[in-house]
Each structure stands twice: as structure tokens, then as C-alpha cells.
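G., the chain you wanted modeled:
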Amino acid sequence: METLATAIALFIAFTFGACIGSFLNVVVYRIPAGISLISPPSRCPNCLHGLGKTENVPVFGWLWLRGRCRWCKVKISSRYPIVEATTGIIFMLVFWQFGYSIETIGYCAFLSWLLSLSLIDLDTMTLPASLTKSGLVLGLVFQGFVGWQIAQGQGAANQLMFGVGGAVSGIWLLEIIALVGSIMLGQQAMGDGDGKLMATIGAWIGWKNVLVSSFIACGVGSIIGGGAIALGIMNKKQPMPFGPFLALGGALSLFLGDAIINVYVNTFFNF
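Predicted structure as C-alpha cells:
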């Protein structure tokens, strides 16, 4: 019975996540375009015909339409169901690790912010301040709630300082990395939004995991960027969005940060 209950809970988490993913598709498209998230309702970007209830069902709506608008027959990007399914999987993983807790709710929101910012950065090479700032504030509020659960007022103050310390560490660390990168490349290495994104990540996961996040982001970014240059896909002067790498680092640190830190400490400082 316990296994069945867990399976049902995971299915619910995936379904809810897929629904949130459908909204994230709206966020990713509309915020850079300066369009309201509320009005008009979801519609075909080509013929502007409003989507019906069955067409709006996450993942399955796209499959039912066979990837084309029901009215104008224009192809609908497969990214829509991929984002919905990915968000559903993310929510499942968060629930699997944190169970029935406020952490599950908070970290689902945190990873939703990271996914939205990553996709926007890939599309537009920008990280909207409206999302980075709101993500930062929400992270600090989350820390306050977690601390209140632990020890009420004193716990909330401690956790809030934990979040503030992580945010400050994040933006300072990215500024140092950006400065070093700019000197090495002879041009601006990062945009202003990258530091704000790292501050947001720090507010959610703290200064230790900020270090892990930056290490992962720089490592993966260097491998992919270097590979793209070696294959002639891009040149050395061509800008590359760094937000997705920061988001990947933040997500992996959330799940694996403590384990990575323990391995590092035991390897290099366990004499």
C-alpha cells in the first residue's frame, strides 16, 4: 500500500508539474515580448485562435493535435510538450527527495524560475530583472518560512541571514568570475543578469552550494563552449548564454551539493 501511495503521489506531482510547465511556456514567450501573462488566454501564435480545453492539456494536447494548430495547421514547436514534461519530471524528483514538506513546494518554485530564465536566456540572451528579482525575494521569504518551522523567530532570522549570505556570495563570486573572464577574453565575459541570477540561486541554497553551482556552471560551460568552437559551430568572440549553465549548477547543487562538498572535503582535507 505504501508503494502504491508513493506512486500515486509521484503521478500527481508529475501532473501538477506538467500544468506548471504549460504556464512556464507562456512566461518564456510573453515576458520578453512585454505581453501580459494573464490576457489574452493561450492562443496560436500564428492565427491567434484561442486554444480549447482539450488543446490546453499539457503534453497530450500537443500529441492530440499532432504538433499542428487545429485551425491554421501551422506547426507547433515540440519545445512546448518537452518543457511541460521536463517540469513534471522536476516536480517528481523534488517530491521524491523532500517528500511532504514546505521544501518541496519551495524548491519546485525555485526550479521553475531557473527553467524559465534558462529558456529566455537561450532565446534572447537576456535574463529579465523581473524574474531574477522576484526569484531572489521569494527565496528569502522561503528561508524565513523554513527557519520559522525550525525555531520560530530566531530560526527565521537565522535562515534569512543564510539566504542573504548566499545571495551576496553569489553576486560577488560572479563578478569575480566575470572580471577574470573579461581579462582573459579581452571583452565582456558575462552580462549583468548572470550575477543577479547567481544571487537568486544563493538566496535559495546558501553560500556553500553557490560555490558548487559556479564550479559546475563554469566546468560545463567551458566544455560545451570549447567543443562548439573546436567544431566550428561558434567562434571565440561569439557570445554564449551563461544563464542555463548557472541554472544547471543551481539545480544539481540542490540535489547533490552536500554530497559533492563531502567528497571534496574527504578527498583533499582528510589527512
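The chain has seven helices and no strands.

Shout if anything looks off.
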